[in-house]
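To illustrate the input format used throughout this study, we show a single complete record. The first block contains the structure-token representation of the backbone; no residue identities are included at this stage. The design step must infer an amino acid for every position from geometry alone.
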């Protein structure tokens, strides 16, 4: 029988804004790693590989390898892998760890998602440099503008009212209020939330810039059972996909077409025939609240243009039939790489019956973790985790 990879431990730190953060990037990673190792029952000396994320555009390329990893107290000779896949770096960290374990290259891998945005003074100016230089950079387009384009395209195509977009934001903030690791845990004052940013996005629909860290321990299913991980959280399937770098190369801004292709492949790998019925809990990367509508449809949770019904009828709440972003998601907490790895952490906790803040999906057996990013949301990762006794 194949020795699957499994999640053995999770470590999350509390988050805040970079300006109010009292711990350094390295100290945050140390705290997250301490918690993940304690949760797993493994000692530092037992870790044989560490995978850490580092988005070069936001920080020096040597930050992870020269500053963070040496401070984690791991044994000499521990293999070090540094991943940079832009907005999916956290998901890429987890994918590589799972591949190392499944391929027999390592048995106990530590995944580290550092905080990303502590350094840049003008975050949106840095994001602008990731856009194609011929036309889009000179226009001054940044991440918020791109988020607005997708939301506007979806709203136009399906005739979605502003109230639905606002409800997407309100529901995710409501979930975040119960998450002790979330950054924004209270609704914004109505007049502040309604401040226009870029049509149709308002301030209440846009994620904060956060500071925090996430760590996850990946090992073999055999070792996880030996650690008395009951239930064991098996990594059933995982993968990544990329679309064109050019915004002009996209066919439709009301969807992320390549995510639908990736989802089909991942579902087949995990033996899932009907994702809406067979997935019990989702954590999807929607830093701009309306993105949730697009991603749910690309993931096959409903037909095109039908996601607003899921928001209106309460399906996405903990007691609904498709609990989604019960952590509050990146719309409420976005520390960069840490936020991209966090969906895996939150899904693992749900399946272990240890949901953050006690917002536990009853009898959750299978969950999906998603991350996306880069200039035009062209990169995506997915992972299916499942509980095994």
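Output of the design step:
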């Amino acid at each position: 029988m194949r020795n699957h990879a499994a999640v053995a431990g999770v470590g999350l730190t509390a988050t805040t804004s970079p300006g109010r953060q009292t711990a350094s990037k390295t100290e945050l990673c140390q705290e997250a790693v301490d918690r993940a190792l304690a949760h797993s029952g493994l000692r530092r000396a037992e870790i044989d590989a560490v995978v850490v994320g580092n988005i070069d555009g936001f920080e020096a390329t040597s930050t992870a390898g020269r500053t963070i990893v040496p401070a984690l107290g791991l044994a000499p000779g521990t293999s070090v892998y540094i991943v940079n896949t832009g907005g999916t770096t956290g998901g890429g960290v987890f994918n590589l760890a799972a591949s190392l374990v499944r391929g027999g290259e390592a048995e106990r891998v530590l995944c580290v998602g550092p905080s990303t945005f502590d350094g840049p003074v003008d975050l949106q100016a840095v994001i602008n440099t990731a856009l194609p230089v011929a036309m889009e950079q000179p226009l001054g387009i940044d991440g918020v503008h791109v988020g607005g384009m997708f939301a506007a395209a979806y709203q136009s195509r399906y005739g979605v009212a502003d109230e639905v977009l606002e409800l997407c934001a309100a529901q995710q903030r409501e979930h975040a209020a119960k998450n002790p690791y979330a950054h924004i845990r209270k609704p914004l004052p109505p007049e502040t939330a309604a401040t226009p940013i870029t049509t149709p996005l308002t301030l209440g629909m846009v994620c904060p810039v956060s500071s925090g860290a996430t760590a996850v321990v990946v090992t073999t299913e055999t070792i996880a059972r030996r650690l008395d991980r009951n239930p064991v959280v098996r990594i059933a399937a995982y993968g990544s996909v990329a679309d064109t770098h050019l915004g002009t190369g996209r066919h439709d801004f009301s969807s992320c077409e390549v995510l639908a292709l990736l989802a089909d492949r991942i579902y087949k790998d995990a033996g899932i025939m009907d994702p809406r019925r067979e997935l019990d809990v989702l954590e999807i990367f929607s830093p701009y609240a309306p993105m949730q509508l697009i991603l749910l449809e690309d993931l096959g949770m409903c037909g095109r243009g039908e996601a607003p019904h899921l928001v209106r009828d309460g399906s996405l709440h903990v007691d609904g039939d498709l609990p989604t972003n019960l952590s509050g998601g990146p719309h409420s907490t976005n520390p960069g790489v840490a936020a991209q790895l966090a969906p895996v952490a939150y899904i693992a906790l749900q399946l272990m019956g240890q949901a953050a803040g006690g917002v536990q999906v009853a009898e959750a057996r299978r969950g999906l973790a998603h991350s996306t990013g880069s200039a035009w949301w062209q990169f995506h990762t997915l992972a299916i985790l499942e509980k095994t006794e």
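Structural context for interpreting the output: Residues 5-120+208-388 form a domain with the Peroxisomal Thiolase; Chain A, domain 1 fold (CATH 3.40.47.10). The mean pLDDT is 93.
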